[in-house]
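Order emerges. As here.
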Amino acid sequence: MSNIQPGSGYGFTSGGYGFTLNTADPFPEKDSAKPHPFKIIPVGVSGSNFRYMVVSGTLNNLVPEIDDVGTGGGTPLLDRTTAGEPNPPIAQLSINTSTKESWIYLRAGKSTGTPSFFPDTDITGSGYPKVISSDVELDDSDTYGYILIGKFDMDSATAPTKGTLYQYVSGSLWGDRIKVNGRTASYYYAKI
């Protein structure tokens, strides 16, 4: 009779030639390389400009635009399609030349109508959700709320070829804007 019994975190098999303990994780983590909503994907360098893509996600069930000004593409939606095929937009990083950092935010504001909504549901409105790159850290205001979805630390600000990406958001979000008694609005987000 064996003194080894199956327990929490391992499996046990026994035979005529001995026994085996299986300590492999029975519930392995999901593959972190798989895309998730708002995953930032470095694309590479075009000239002296570092470019990136963001996997489509939602804020309050709205698919954001991406500020694609650096590549001449305007502000396409993250889930853009061309001729029925996915065609994710590519944007350009704004890199701080002193710190070699770039912050990637999801920016949203309230609508201008009465009653006003957060986020603005009118795609032509300035408060419609948009992914932006900034060369400085941004603070919430009455106009916009910012949630940091990622940050790049680049090897060089003038001719970036590589860097380190820090990903802070890994799913779609639900947000709320609260403004009380003349104070600056506060923004709250939850992953859905």
